Please model this.
Amino acid sequence: MDLIEIKSQLPEDLFNVLNPDITELRPSQEKAIGAGLLEGSNLLVCTPTASGKTLIAEIALIKSIMENKGKGIYIVPLRALATEKFKEFKKKYEKLIRIAVSIGNMDSTDSYLADYDLIFCTSEKLDSLIRHNSPWLKYIKTVVVDEIHLLNDLSRGPTLEVTLTILKTLLTNPQIIGLSATIGNPKELADWLEAKLVQDSWRPVELKKGVYLKGNLEFLD
Model:
């Protein structure tokens, strides 16, 4: 699918940001669009690393914000990743929307975030914001959960699960998008999220298995 095919469904400024670098959508991106990405459907995207999951999140977040549907929040497992994603999105979209990162003080409502459209944070920070009853949370419309397979992690999993459960009750018809390269039980997780499952095996670089021994590399069939 070519990007031009969905031009009419995207805000013009968003299309113009994407168009110079992206002309053809990858298989997972096309599947996500077919599953209702542009109509606000919940999605669980399970595809290999570098297969285009971030763009799926970008389109959902920026489209919703620019159409004045509400704020977006991007949940990541690590502070460093939150900062990395913040810088990436700010460089690309700072002329279109207001972007912030919230990863610090766990004993604050961060009221200044009411003035921002897209917020990057860890699940622990979002949990803190919820517990402090940050008033701007009710305006969230799009929720992206990166590395959502960490729901199974003994340390981070419970906090993420509780946070998502509360968001599902706190917000009115939010669009929730989970992203992961590996999920052991994708169908069950999709059902819990009330989401459509998007799976694809395409990757930009083919992986091969082989055995290296004493200077010789032999690939397996």
The chain has one domain: 3-219. The CA atoms of residues 56 and 186 lie 18 Å apart.
